[in-house]
Amino acid sequence: MFQKNVALGKKLKVSSWRKTAFGSWKVTQDSQVYCLQTINVEGALEYLKGRSLSMTHLAGQACARMIEDNPEINTLIRFGKFYPRKETSIFFQVASDKEGKDLSGHVVRNIDKMSLEDIQNDLNSAASRIKSGDDFDYKKVKKQMNIIPTFLLPSLINFLGFVLYKLNIWSSLLGTPKDAFGSMMITNIGSLGMQRAYVPLVAYSHCPLILALGCVYERVGVVDGEIKIEKVMDCCWTLDHRVLDGVVGSKMAKRFEAYFKSLEFK
What we know:
Blueprint: E1 3-4, H1 16-24, E2 32-40, H2 42-48, H3 55-69, E3 75-78, E4 81-84, E5 90-95, E6 103-108, H4 116-132, H5 136-147, H6 153-166, E7 169-170, E8 184-188, E9 209-223, E10 226-240, H7 246-261
Parallel strand pairs: 5-8, 8-9
Antiparallel strand pairs: 1-7, 2-10, 3-4, 5-6, 9-10
Helix pairs in contact: 3-4, 3-7
């Protein structure tokens, strides 16, 4: 009846700095680092012409490559110890209604092993179920949230987070999907017409990283030594500084941008 909530390897040996970082901050209180990265997406836009793919799908695959090259991102903290995840999965936020009154999402599991078309089909199918009200997990969680008094929700959420991630125990009796948030989270605020926004880490997700994609816009820049108008997109990263520092953040940002520069789309 009871299973592991997250597939994990053996606990990792960590540096003295990482231990100090863990003792210095508490998640979502003062451990968050906000970073802005602006990337040229002209090649991506050209690739997307005539295709039903979107920038969200490209960003999902780019993040999967980024995690593959920087596995320290794919880490879960349990009782002060760091454990590597065996699976690379990304949670994509989905608006469940046109008015934006309700928000849900979907985890694309083993995204590092998927093509762009696989990611697209997985996400589109899930979004369709959520918006039509046919997603069983979403309906179940929403029903539970509606009947629980608001003042009890923080205690319930903290309890579920403790059982699911600290104890690493999952059961259908808990009423939540297994490993509901994956390795990291992506939200496309650009679809709402927003250029940039710094979004907070959610404590109960136990994700060390979230990416907010802005809308595409034009700016004057220097390309190949010439001044020209280029099409760019702002990528707003929020990092848990207990897990990720500036060195890793720099490496992952460079890998993310390299995906778009080298047109690795496939």
